[in-house]
Amino acid sequence: MNNESQMQYVAMTVGETSITSTSRANAPQPMAPMEKPRKFTVIDFKRWQQKMFFYLTTLCLQRFTSEDAPEVPEGTSKKEHFMIVEAWKHSNFLCRNYILTALQDDLYNVYSGTKTSKELRGTITKIQDRGCGN
C-alpha cells in the first residue's frame, strides 16, 4: 500500500467512524435506570403517580401512558407496517407491565384487565380521583 492509498484508507475509516458515532449520538438515549417506585397501596396516590411518571420517563416509556397506537400511513409496505405496529405493541406491553408490577397484588387484580398503558393510567387516575386515597 503506498502513502496515498494509506491516507485514503485512513480518511475513509475516520469518516465512517464519525458517521457511526454521530448516528449513535443523535439516537434518543434512555436515562440510567433509577430505583423502581415502591408498590402503590392506595395511600399517597399523587406521590406514587409522580414517581411512576419519572420512572417511566427514565425508561423512555412515559409517552405510552398518553398516546394511542399509531396510525400507519396508507402506502406503507407490509414489512414496515408490521415493524411499526409491533414496536408500539412491545413498548406498550413493557410500560403497562411496569405499572402493573408497581401495584399491590389486590390492585393488580383489579387493573390487569386493561389493554393499553393509556387505558390503565386513565382507569387508575379516575378511581383514585374519586377519593380513594388522594
From TrEMBL:
Domain of life of the source: Eukaryota
Which PANTHER family does this UniProt record tie to the protein?
Answer: OS08G0421700 PROTEIN, PBF68 PROTEIN
Name of the protein described by the UniProt record = Uncharacterized protein
